[in-house]
Amino acid sequence: MTNDEVIEALELTAKLSELHGENPFKVRALTNAAYKLSKIRFDFNNKTLSDIQDIDGIGGGIASKIFDLITHGSTKELDELKEKTPSGVIDMLGVKGLGPKKVKQLWQGLEIESIGELLYACNKNRLITLKGFGEKTQQGVKQSIEFLIANNNKFHFATIEKPVLNLLNQIKKDFPGIRIEAVGQLARKCEVIDKVEILVNQPINKNYSELVAQIPLPLNFYGSNNEKFAHKQLQLSSTEEHLKQINFSSLTTSNFKTEEEIYNALNLPFVCAELREGLGEVDLAKQNKLPKLIEYSDLRGTLHNHTNCSDGVNTLKEMADYCIKLGYEYFGVCDHSKTAVYASGLSIEKVIQQHIEIDELNLNYTNFKILKGIESDILGDGSLDYPEEILKTFDFIVASVHSNLKMNKEKATERLIKAIENPYTTILGHPTGRLLLARPGYPINHKKVIDACAANNVVIELNAHPYRLDIDWRWIYYCIQKNVMISINPDAHVAEGLLDMYYGICAARKGMLTKEMCLNTYSLNDLEKKFLQKK
After folding, report:
1. DSSP state letters, 448-487
2. Are the C-beta atoms of residues 429 and 304 closer than 8 Å to each other?
3. List of residues 6+ apart from 250 with CB closer than 8 A
4. What are phi and psi of 490, to 5 degrees?
5. Beta-carbon contacts of residue 349 (< 8 Å; ≥ 6 apart)
6. Which of 2, 16, 75, 449 could make an SS bond with 68 (beta carbons 3.0 to 4.6 A apart)?
7. Which domains does the chain have, with CATH numbers?
């Protein structure tokens, strides 16, 4: 069982328990455990009960439930709860904005037992007859259902890429000389995947059912001989719009050794798969203005990370040491600020203590430094949640929105711009707050926000967590045009979370980010100079 599947099972157990009026303390324990696991994305493969009990914040009783889940795929408790709940009611618990109490009202008050019935009831204006429901709540439920339906059978890139690569690598090992590649959305490194396409040059006469079972989408295999392989690969790894713009149909032959040869035949420079979306890359190619894209190896450090001082798992030293292991020059700690009570945000006293700890640790490092940062909550009026005398003690500040996400576009934009105009804001964190496949970003006027960052010398974050990837890569090129730098940050809550920088690089390349326009490709010396300029 994957971490996500364990989280889903714990959350469902909590929701069903609350739905049926069971002990609220048990519900809270299950919910807290799921929240903890969502931050650390724990690998449960081959883990023992003792390993699970060692996870910080997971009690013995919950650890036993988790062990049952990874051993048997379920728990007796969850099975019993499912048995007495209609499957459609269980589905309704997945609708954002509907907690167990509201679902219980819909189930018992209006006898609604499926999402389809619920959407119909919304369209017939029936929810407003229930206590606690109003027109605004009804509209929100309707929008959540529509979002859920639109994103059904879609998965994060990070969820799909690893098991597909495992399959391809095993096939290559078993069939030396075989030519097999992932094409389509995976080749373009799209942030959300709804189909898996694989191109191969020979039949595969071996059973890989165990590896295939790890891929939660159907596999579409395409065959091609070696002479036409590159032609088919480029065709399958490009959008229809890209193919149209490069005049792909004008080719008089399909016999090419490489994709580079095809672009050469079309009198164009090579366009890597990540860019083949038909969103301006061809015009740049025709003008010979395609930029040299950022590489993972260009990164010199990482900013916006959490420790166990707030809602992270590892200590400050453990996080820093992991960065050194990865070859980085600096580690920016950005624990949650005091307003984020749900995430154990740092009081002013804790901030001072952490800065003392950082100073002490830095004395023992050579060619490496921990930088003093904070993820300061942007309050409803756009202000940051520490007084000036505390704000000025940080090396840099990531300003982020975590609450009151239902503002309209105008107010949400004004809120961000006020935070951007704060002289202590260094980086605007995950600008829309989106969670891919779970929550759309709050509406903002991207151009106004980016323009404000340009006017105030504020960097915009590309949050590298594969469930966020926010700012959307489609806005990165506009940032570059406005000379607004991007900071690729993992938002890591556990040491291994620092590896999510890879997903940030994937998204950054789609947005045509260059090494020069990425903040954390700076050396430590240059980065500190930039931070001082901001001050």
Report:
1. HHHHHHHHHT-EEEEE--TTT-BS-GGGHHHHHHTT--EE
2. yes
3. 266
4. -80, -15
5. none
6. 75
7. 3-150 (1.10.150.110), 155-286 (3.30.460.10), 296-534 (3.20.20.140)
Cα distances from 296 to residues 293, 488, 508, in angstroms, run: 10, 11, 10
Distance CA 123, CA 139 (A): 9
Torsion sign, CA atoms 307, 313, 318, 323? negative
Sign of CA dihedral 402, 403, 405, 408: negative
Cβ-count burial of 249 within 10 angstroms (0-12 exposed, 13-18 middle, 19+ buried)? exposed
> Both tokens of residue 169?
């690598």
* Rounded Cα distance, 166 and 302, in Å: 28
In the beta sheet, which residues pair with residue 462? Answer: 488
User: How high is the mean pLDDT in each 10-residue block of the chain (535 residues)?
Assistant: 91 96 93 88 87 87 94 94 95 92 93 91 85 89 89 93 97 97 98 97 95 94 97 98 98 97 98 98 97 98 95 93 97 96 91 98 97 97 95 97 91 98 98 91 96 98 96 98 98 93 98 98 97 85
Rounded to whole angstroms, the Cα distance separating 6 from 66 reads 7
The pTM score is 0.87
Determine which helix (DSSP H) or strand (DSSP E) holds 303, and give its type and residue range. strand 301-305
Tokens 């081959």 sit on residue: 46
d(CA 364, CA 371): 14
- 101 CB neighbour count, 10 Å cutoff: 11
Segments in 177-257 forming alpha helices (H): 209-212, 226-236, 240-245
Q: Using an 8 Å Cβ cutoff, are 507 and 469 in contact?
A: yes
Q: What are 378's strand-pairing partners?
A: 384
Name the 3-class secondary structure at 519: helix
